Amino acid sequence: MARPRRDARRTALEHTRHQVLSHPLARGITPREVQDYLAKVPRRRFPRVAYDERGPLPCIQPRGGVPLFEAQHALTRRLSEAGADFVPLTIDSYTRHNQYDTATQLLRRSEEEGKDYLNGYPLVSHGHELSRELYTGIDKPISLRHGTPDARLLAEVALASGIAEIEGGGICYCLPYSEGFPLDRCLLYWQYVDRICALYSTEDRPIHRESFGPLSATLVPPAIAIAVQIIEALLAAEQGVVSFAVSFGQTGSLIQDVAAARVLKHLTRSYLDEFGFETTRAYLVYHQWMGQFPQQREKAAALIAGSAMISGMVGADKVVVKTVDEALGVPRPEVNAEAVDSVRYMLRIFACAAPVTSPLIDREAALIKSEVRSIIGAIFDLSGDVFWESVYRAFQMGYLDIPFSPHSDNANLLVSMRDANKSIRIVDRGHVPISDADAEQERALLASVGDRNDKTYRQLLGDINMMMV
Amino acid sequence: MEKVCAGRVVVGVIGDDIHVVGNRIMQLALEESGFQVFNLRTRNRPEHFCQAALEVNADAVFVSSLNGEGEYWCADFRRQFADVGLGGILLYVGGNVVVGKRAMADVVSLFTGYGFDRVYHQQPDIGVAIADLLEDLKRGKAQA
After folding, report:
1. Contact (CB<8Å) A457/B18
2. Domain boundaries defined on chain A
3. CA-based nearest residue to A409, from A211, A174, A229, A235
4. CATH architecture of A6-349
5. Helix-, strand-, coil-residue percentages of chain B, each rounded to 5
6. Nearest residue on chain B to A408, judged by CA atoms?
7. B128 vs A: CB within 8 A
8. Among all residues of chain A, which has the CA nearest to that of B31?
9. How far is CA B77 from CA A76, B47, B69, in A?
10. Which of A224, A161, A229, A148 is nearest to A192 (CA)?
11. Which of A213, A281, A388, B143 has its CA 20 to 30 A from that of A174?
12. Which residues contact A451 (CB under 8 A, 6 or more apart)?
C-alpha cells in the first residue's frame, strides 16, 4: 500500500544527472549556468505568470515544430504575432525515441537538400546554445511538446534553452506512444524530469509541468483519463513541482466535456491538498478534438470553432488548437496562425463567464467522480513501497486500462462505446475497479441508444470516427 | 455465450508500424463472428506470424499494414510458412499495404505473388474479409 508522500522526493540525483549531462549533445550544460540563465529570461516565459495574468479567456496554444533552425525561428515569430499565448516547440520522433544520431543525420540532410526529413524540431541535435536564440525577445511561455518515454536529456536541453513548460509524464508519454518501453523505467525517468523541474523552480519563476490527458484519443472514458491526470499531478508534486496543468481531450460530447472538466479540476485540487501539496498550483488544459479529423477544410473549421467554444464553457486555462489541415499533415505556418485567430474570435464572441450546468451534466459529473475515486482508492491499496510502484502495479492488474493503447503492458480488457448523447460509456470494465453500481449505470446509459442493430465493431468504428460524418 | 468456434486466426501488424486501432477493432470483429483470435498486436516480423500460427494450429493468418511497410516485409511470406509445414494455411493481408498511390490491380497481384490468398488494400469494412474467411474455411484450405 503506497500513497503519495512529501518525503518520496528523489535524492542522490547528482550521479545520474552527471551521467545524463555527460552526453556530448548536452554540450557542457551545467545546472548553475542554467539556473542563472532562467533567472534572466522574461518572467512571462513562466506559465504560472501567464496564467495569472490571463483575462477571462483561455490562453491559446497552437502546435508546431520543423527541423531547421531558421524555419523554427520564423514559425515561432509567426505564431507569436498571430496571438498565440503559448508558443509550441514540437520535437521530431527520432529524438523522442532517443535516436539522436539519426535525428542529427536527417537534420544535416534537411539542411543540405532544403527538404524536411524530420517531423519536428530536433532540439537535442541543435543544442541549447543555438535554441536559446529561437526565443530572443519572446516574453511568453514556450511549451515543449513531444511524447518521449525517456526525456531526461531532452528536458535538460529544453530547460537550458529557456523553455519553462515541459509536457509529458510516466504514463501519458508511455502507454499511448510506445509499444514496448518498460513502464517502470518510464515512471522513474519522468521522476527525474519532475525533480529537475523542481530544482530549477524559484518562488516567482516556477518551472511548469503539464500532463497529456487525451492519451490514445480513442474512446478513452473520462474516468480513466482523469485518474491518470491526478496520478501524474501527484507524482510531480512528490518531486517538488509547484506548477502543474492537468488536461483532457474533447470527448465528442458537450455534456461529458463540461462534467469531466468540473471533476478533473475539483479532484486534482482535492487530492493535492489531501497529501500535503497545497502549494502546488493546478491548471486545466483542453485539447481540441484529437481523433481523426475531417479532410474537408469547411468541416475541420466548423469542428475547430465548436471546440473553441467548448474550451471557454469548460473554464479551461488553456486550449491547444488544431488546424484545418489536420487531416492532411503538418500544417503550414499561415494555416496555424489562422487557427489561432479563429479560436480567439470564437472565444471572444461566445465568452462564457458562468459555469454551464444542467441535471444531465450533474449526473454525468457525479458518475465520473465516483468512478475516479474508486480507481484511485484501489490503486492506493496496491502493494508498493512508494506511490509510483503502486501505479506500475495498477497497469499489471488492469486497474488502469487505456483503450487502444499500443503498449504491451496495457490490459486491453476495457471496452467503451458512445451513448445517445455521444458520451463515452464503459461497456465492459475489464479489471478497472469501478463499483458495480457505477458499471450498471454506465450500461443503463448506453442502453438509452436503443438497439443499434449492427455489429459491435461497426458501431465502434462509427464512434471512433464520429467527426468524419 | 458458448458458440462453436468458427476457426483460429492469428492477427497482427507487420513491420515497425504501431497503428493499433484497426488491429483492436479487427480482434473484436473476428471474435464477434465466432473466431478464436490470437492477436500479436503491433511491430511484428514474418517469423512472428509463422511461429504463432504453428503454436496455436491456426486456420488463417491476417497480416495488417497501415503505413505501407507490408510491401517490404511480406515478400516471400508463403514460403516461410511452407518451411515450417504450414504451406496450406490461409494468408490474408489488409490495410494500406503499400506506400503511395498505386493501381488496385497492381497491389493485389503483388501480394498474391507473395502467396497471399486475399488482399484488402484500403478496404474500410472488415466485414468483407470476415465473410470471405468464413467462405474460404468452408471450402477447405487454400491451394498452396
Report:
1. no
2. 6-349
3. A174
4. Alpha-Beta Barrel (3.20)
5. 40, 20, 40
6. B41
7. no
8. A457
9. 48, 9, 14
10. A148
11. A281
12. none
pLDDT band at residue A424 using 50, 70 and 90 as cut-offs: very high
Nearest of A330, A40, A324 to residue A202 by alpha carbon: A40
Residue A201, helix vs strand vs coil: coil
Long-range own/partner contacts, residues A439-445 (CB < 8 A, 24 or more apart): A441/A367, A442/A367, A445/A419
What's B59's DSSP letter? S
> Which pTM value belongs to this model?
0.93
Residue recorded with cell 484511485: A376
pLDDT, tens digit (0-9, with 9 covering 90-100), for B81-91? 999 999 999 99
Nearest residue, CB atoms, A406 vs list B20, B26, B127: B20
Contact residues, chain A, for B26 at CB < 8 Å: 457
Q: Which residues of chain B are within 8 Å of residue A460 when distances are taken between CB atoms?
A: 25, 28
Q: Is A133 left (phi over 0), alpha (psi -120 to 50) or beta?
A: alpha
Predicted-complex ipTM score: 0.81
Distance CA A80, CA A86 (A): 8
Distance from CA of B144 to the nearest CA of A (A): 31
For residue A258, give the H/E element and its range. helix A254-274
Note the residue count of chain A.
469
Contact A90, A61 (CB under 8 A): no
Contacts of B127 in chain A (CB under 8 A): 455, 458
- What residues of chain B, 49 to 68, have a C-beta less than 8 Å from chain A? none
Q: Are A434 and A375 in contact (CB under 8 A)?
A: yes
Q: Are residues A404 and B29, on separate chains, in Cβ contact within 8 Å?
A: no
Q: What is the Cα–Cα distance from A343 to A346, expressed in whole angstroms?
A: 5
pLDDT bin (cut points 50, 70, 90) of residue B98 is confident
Chain A CB within 8 Å of residue B42 CB: yes
DSSP SS3 for B140:
coil
User: Residue A408 has which C-alpha cell?
Assistant: 504491451
B121 forms beta bridges with B95
Helices (H), A114-216: 123-126, 128-132, 152-160, 183-200
Q: Check residue A319 and give its pLDDT.
A: 98
Residues of B in contact with A465 (CB under 8 A): none
- Among A292, A455, A457, the strongest candidate for a mutation testing the B interface, having the largest count of B CBs within 10 A, is A457
Residue A458 sits at the chain B interface (C-beta within 8 Å): yes
Q: List Cα–Cα distances, B67 to A232, A441, B41, B100, in angstroms.
A: 32, 39, 15, 10
Identity of the residue in A179, A408, A455 whose CB atom sits nearest the CB atom of B29 = A455
